[in-house]
Amino acid sequence: MSRLASLLGKIIVWGTVVTTLVYLWTPLAIDLVMSLEPGNVLRFPTTGVSLRWYEFFFSNPAFRNCMIVTFSLATIAAIAAVLLAIPCSLAFVRYNFPGKGALSSLFTAPLATPAVVLGVSLLFFLMITIGLSFTSLVIGHLLLTFPYALRTITATMFGFDRSLEEASASLGANTIQTFRRITMPIIAPGIVASFIFGVAVSLDDVGASVFLVTPQIMTLNVQLLAYWRWALDPTVGAASVFLILIGVALTLIADRIVGLERFLF
Known about the structure:
75% of the residues lie in helices and 0% in strands. The protein is mainly alpha-helical. α3 (61-94) crosses α8 (175-204), α3 (61-94) crosses α10 (220-228) and α6 (134-157) packs across α8.
């Protein structure tokens, strides 16, 4: 009876895993196949295999400009999020102060706020302050990426052996030297992971960006959304595969450098 129950449990577990993988990867596989369509209209199954739309996507000046804006925006927002998250994480982990819980909830509130709501709120705020520009996009994406950086770096700092810093101080190192030579190398995996997560979140955003772009400064996702309103060709499929590959590459790099299991389990 116990063997039957064990076998049944394994079947259920592996069946769930396989079903989940099929559910997640089937749309991506279909997208890849449709991006290879040689015709002018998206079809599945395709009528042939061609890289025509990949060539069009990478050679189109509008898409190239949007890629420059998108990757620059993701890099700047992720760096800013990490720089802000490091001192905030130190404060939350090492000190107790009035309003600590409320402040932590406030900092992570964008995680529970729909991107569309965040985008509309930022639109009204920025229109009466600095206006819409690349800076406003950075501000918006900073709000999106900062909670991930804060959570990741804070998780890295829990379990930090403070005796290492005390030993450094006892040997004559000042606070800055201790932070640079002891603290930073230990929390470096969390910093790298935070940066990679920030880039991935920024690249993925549409809901907030659609309210903050201008005709001159537009992210790739918003440009693709606008393009597809008028042309149902496989260009969007090719661009989607490109963005998916970037996301997979970022995940593999993060796992290779820091090991994602420490942040997932």
